[in-house]
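User: what does the whole thing look like in 3D?
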Amino acid sequence: MPKLRTVRSAGAVLLYSLMCPALASVAHAQAGAVAPPLPAPPPPEPSAPSVPPSVDAKPAEPAATDQAAELAKLRAEVEATKQAVEELKAAQEEAASANEVPVAEQEKLKIYGFADMGFQYVQIDKRALLANVYDVNEPDFVLGNLNLYFDAQPVENWRGLVEVRFTNAPQGKITNFGGLGGKFTRASTFTDDSTGAALNAPLWGGSVVVERAWLEYNRLQALKFRVGNWFTPFGIWNEDHGSPTLISLAWPQFMTQRWMPLRQTGLMAYGNAFAGSWELGYAATLSNGRQEESTLNVDRYLGYGGRLYARRDTGEVNTTFGVSFFTGKNRDKAVAVTGVNPITWSTSETFEYNEYVMGADASVDVGHTRVRAEGVVRRLEYTPGKRELLNQVLQPGGRAPDKWEHTLYLLVAQQLPWKSLDMFEPYLWAEALQSPTIVGDGVFVSSVGLNVHFNPAITWKNQVAHINFFDWMYDSPFDNSKENVNQFYSRLVMAF
Amino acid sequence: MTTRRKLLTTLLNAPVLAWAKRSSAAGEVLAVIVNKSNPIGSLTQNELRPLFQTTKKAWGSGEDALPVNLPEDNQLRNEFDQAVLGLDPERVARYWTDRKVRGGARPPVRVPTTNAVLKTVASKPGAVGYLRLSEVNNSVKVVAKISGGKLSAP
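Assistant: Here's the predicted 3D structure for the full assembly of 650 residues, as structure tokens:
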């Protein structure tokens, strides 16, 4: 590296000397041995005496000869300089080549990630159910995501990816309500730092969430295998996943309500092929299923899913159309001791249902305009006698119904076309969702946002959203107009 | 130094400086090169793009493709990205950020110089890279050219 720097500085000195030949000798001395020799600068001209021009002065011929000679000399100087620049470039490339890492040896492990942190304010009518279930109506500075990726490619055709998220959850989460609900409690991760230098130094623990962890064999483009814990290949949101890539900060309701499992443990086969300028791809998954009750499969049923997409990316226009589906049977298993000596057990299912989820999505980027649209339909059917209990405080005796759910959203973002303002990307979002819930079966989300792209790594994202609950197909027992939510999110996002 | 001499020096140096700048920057014809053993004769933009987006990982012959890129701040890289991917440097950077966040395949390997591109492509059967046309020698095969931001047959 020092050698490179010397070569670069020599180049700079050399070019500078071209602009100012009088300095060339000094510059040459500074460049030292690395710089090729420069032609000697022309001798300084004697300062001409200030004599007024005379009519008798002899013109022309010797002066013209001098000029021609001087021109020839300068031309030679230029040629020599050209050669010197070429030699410098060659020396620079040679120096860089000396530091090259053989291609096969490059980057067996890469670590990268993203982070977003900032502020949020969620406003809900204080009489509303949701206002008391969640901590809202106060201004909050938040630690959002701090995600690290460990991307290993130890040998050709094999890859492993682990993404972990560091979070201060579950500190402070309401774990039980007071009054009729019992004793009000929050999760506490407080402990003493027994390894700290100060006695009883306080420490609040957090969590490390395994977002995904998989190993992959990718020898064949049309058939790659992935095993482990992966994001369900469904629609746009779960694929884009992180705040640097997603346009908006808020998630669609069908994602927060987990209409399909966000991640699964199992096997995925995927691949792609090209037909002209179109890329055609697929993913097929076989997994434990939802796994929200346990990390292990508590029944013999597996989850099946898949995705098909067609993509055309010309740089200026990038279009993706996809369809996704997931189906699985989900149930819990309860174990009870029914006798002692000898000890006996009984197992039962507290709930059991089949679910079928299908979605279609479209992403279109044209220049600086980005459009995302997605529609999802879900059918959920309980096994007779195995319906889930609803919240018994809010709906005593209530059990979950079979249901159809539908949703559709449209998101349009436009980076401003003017050069000095092209860092600003406002967007609009509208989302409609029909799903029977305790606060109504209709939800409409209207939202505006502004992303400020400081550079490809740093974005400041802001979003205001209004969530409106209403009775669409069924009557809710609650006055759902009180449940409407106003949200403001602001996050500084960094990809690294 | 007289005014005349200054003027002459400036006039003569101008093309040198322009040439020095151009020799490492815009305006020069780029050559897209593959290993000599690669049976392919020419590559279109639609064929090159997925190779350098690493969404396509093999040649038609089944040989693994090894796209070789220059660093992001290299002017030749920027010209290549604009002509082949249709993206300016900022959007290229964002493209790869998005790809990383999604957990997608890694970007092409990166080497520091065109000399390294030449050596890598000459020595690896599936390699494909780019450099100035004037730097091409007979150790590799030219399968496309880029001039004025447009990709054309060799």
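In plain terms: Chain A touches chain B through 59 residues (CB under 8 Å). Residues 1-58 of chain A have pLDDT under 50 and may be disordered.
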